[in-house]
Amino acid sequence: FACYLKKQKDAPSLEATPTPGSTYSFTPEDGLPSRIEIVPAEGEAVKVEHGTDGLWKLSLPFETEAEQGSAQAAAEQISTLRMLGEVDAALDILGLDKPTHVINISFTGGKTHKLEVGSVTPTDSGYYTRVDGDRIVVLSKDGIDALLNLQASPPYLATPTASQSPLPPTGTPVPVMESTPTPAP
Description:
It is a single chain. The chain is of the alpha+beta class. The chain has four helices and ten strands; from the N terminus they run H-E-E-E-E-E-H-E-H-E-E-E-E-H. It has a ten-stranded antiparallel β-sheet, with helices on one face.
């Protein structure tokens, strides 16, 4: 317990620098999101891309048409990621030495941005993130969670599945199992 108290006493205090009003991570000058790739530290990456035909396509973990509503909602979420403040602290304290997720975003204007997602803030209101390998900011937890949900539940287009009949096809013999009586002891 004494070691824990000493470590807490020696650790730098983390305070977010407040920003007046709402500040968003990405501006209209960046353009509209055209590609979103979420790469978790563990698990499969997911990438959705806005095609020239105006439809969202899922290109990772495999190529298929995406459920348009979910993909568009994720793109709109990027435009509304609120910045809660900037932080100046060691990467390991913020969970950014080994990010849980990396989010790569391409915009219609040709700009690209990389978000590295670290730990949740002590107040549970945001995530520590590093933008483009440079600035460390706290982004709203709701916004980041909505994007991470894209990776947890990829926007697959619902397709009908063939139902399986519990009976074998007609004309197929069904094996009959016979039991052998066990002698009494």
